[in-house]
């Protein structure tokens, strides 16, 4: 009987050591995961920020190219005249006429052309 108890005691002690070792391995794994969590989330967030910034830079470069083309087109007397006409300037000696009701005239004129004008 004493031999049986000593083998049971040994197997129980062995189980406790194995269980303690397993708990220790799990605890170390959890500690490593906890220590890696912050740097990994920071890395993922930074990658997202970099991608957004790169998209923003690409958009700004496209806008700059468009503005450079507009500037190249607008250098000159013809462009200056065109812009002045667009905002309503008139040259000396010219008369400015403001015509109102053009959309209504177009509708009435289109009806006349189609033959809908019945008098």
Task: Give an overview of the whole structure.
The protein is mainly α. The protein has one domain. The chain is built from three helices and no strands. The longest helix has 73 residues. The chain is elongated, with a radius of gyration of 42 Å. The model has no long low-confidence stretch (mean pLDDT 85).
Record keyword descriptors for this entry:
single chain; 119 residues; mainly alpha
In short:
The chain has 119 residues and is mainly α. It is built from 3 helices and no strands.
Proportion in helices? over 70%
Number of domains: 1
The number of strands is 0
Query: How much β-strand is present in the residues?
Result: under 5%
Shape: elongated
Gyration radius from CA atoms, angstroms: 42 Å
> Structural class given helices, strands, pairing?
mainly alpha
Summarize the helix and strand pattern as letters: HHH
Number of helices: 3
What's the end-to-end separation, in Å? 129 Å
Give start-end ranges of low-pLDDT stretches: none
Rounded mean pLDDT is 85
The main β sheet shows up as:
none
């Amino acid at each position: 009987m004493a031999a049986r108890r000593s083998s049971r005691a040994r197997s129980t002690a062995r189980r406790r050591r194995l269980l303690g070792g397993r708990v220790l391995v799990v605890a170390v794994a959890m500690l490593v995961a906890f220590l890696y969590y912050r740097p990994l989330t920071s890395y993922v967030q930074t990658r997202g920020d970099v991608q957004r910034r790169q998209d923003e830079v690409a958009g700004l470069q496209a806008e700059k190219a468009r503005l450079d083309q507009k500037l190249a087109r607008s250098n000159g007397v013809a462009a200056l005249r065109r812009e002045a006409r667009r905002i309503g300037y008139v040259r000396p000696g010219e008369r400015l006429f403001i015509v109102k009701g053009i959309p209504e005239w177009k509708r009435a004129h289109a009806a006349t052309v189609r033959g809908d004008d019945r008098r």
